[in-house]
Design goal:
This protein has 133 residues and is mainly alpha-helical. It has one domain. It is built from six helices and no strands. The chain is elongated, with a radius of gyration of 16 Å. The protein starts with a helix and ends in a 7-residue tail after the last helix. It holds the Pfam family GtrA_DPMS_TM. The chain crosses the membrane at residues 15-39, 45-63, 75-99, 105-126. Residues 17-127 form the GtrA/DPMS transmembrane domain. Belongs to the GtrA family. InterPro entries: GtrA_CellWall_Glycosyl, GtrA_DPMS_TM.
């Protein structure tokens, strides 16, 4: 069997696939944030973070549905978990800014702080394989 095909299709690599998609979404989030900070330095940091979050959200949902879990998921549930994650993200961002971290460092720390919680909730609630309404 082709090792790449085995790696992509094997259920035991689901957590890895989750982090691949999450990493892509994180890169999108950070790239959009950096672009917005560069192009619109007057834009409030929370607006930058929110716009970046929304941009990465759709990529993340579709990536998890078609690559990570390979089953239909609930967009509404995923959005609610993502909003909770974004709320936690902003708490971490606020703490980073309170400690006077540079804006991009504070966003980086905030973006990397929630993925494990998101994986667990996604696996047991959003993409669980049965009725996802």
């Amino acid at each position: 069997m082709n090792i790449f095909k085995f790696f992509i299709e094997n259920e035991s690599f689901q957590l890895f696939r989750f982090f691949v998609v999450g990493g892509g979404a994180t890169l999108i989030h950070l790239a959009i944030a950096a672009l917005l900070i560069f192009l619109f330095p007057f834009l409030h940091i929370y607006a930058v973070n929110f716009i970046s979050f929304l941009t990465a959200f759709l990529f993340s949902f579709l990536g998890h549905q078609y690559f990570t879990f390979k089953r239909q998921g609930s967009l509404a549930k995923f959005f609610s978990v993502s909003v909770l994650g974004f709320f936690l993200n902003n708490i971490v961002l606020t703490i980073g800014l309170a400690f006077h971290f540079p804006k991009m460092i504070a966003i980086l720390i905030a973006v990397m702080s929630v993925p494990f919680l998101t994986y667990i909730v996604s696996k047991i609630w959003i993409f669980r394989g049965d009725s996802n309404d």
